[in-house]
Design brief:
The protein has two domains: 35 residues; 31 residues. With 90 residues, the chain is mainly α. The model has no long low-confidence stretch (mean pLDDT 85). The protein is elongated, with a radius of gyration of 27 Å. The longest helix has 22 residues. Helix content is 54%, strand content 0%.
C-alpha cells in the first residue's frame, strides 16, 4: 500500500463528493475505484451488455429510405393543407 498526498481540483472534488454521497462508500474506496477505472486500458475495462429493443415507428415499407427530401416535402404539404383546412372552418 502506498500513501500519498494528492491535490484535487475543485471540479473533481465535487465529482468525488457526489460519488461518495451516491455510493455511501468511504472517500478512499471511491478514489481507488475511480483511479482503477480510469487507468485500465480500454480493452481491459469490463463491458456492459445491452439489448436494443426494436420499436415500430410506423414507417411505410413502400417508401424509398433514400428519398428523405421528398418525404419532408410531402409532410410539409400535408401540414400546409391541414392548416389551410382549419382556416376554412373558422
Amino acid at each position: 500500500m502506498m500513501r500519498s498526498t494528492l491535490t484535487i481540483d475543485p471540479d473533481v472534488a465535487r465529482l468525488l463528493q457526489d460519488a461518495i454521497a451516491r455510493s455511501k462508500k468511504p472517500f478512499k474506496t471511491v478514489v481507488n475505484d475511480a483511479l482503477r477505472r480510469g487507468l485500465c486500458a480500454p480493452e481491459a475495462r469490463p463491458r456492459t451488455a445491452f439489448k436494443v429493443k426494436p420499436m415500430d415507428l410506423g414507417w411505410d415499407a413502400t417508401r424509398d429510405p433514400t428519398s428523405f427530401n421528398r418525404l419532408i416535402d410531402e409532410l410539409a404539404v400535408a401540414d400546409f393543407q391541414a392548416i389551410k383546412h382549419r382556416r376554412k372552418k373558422a
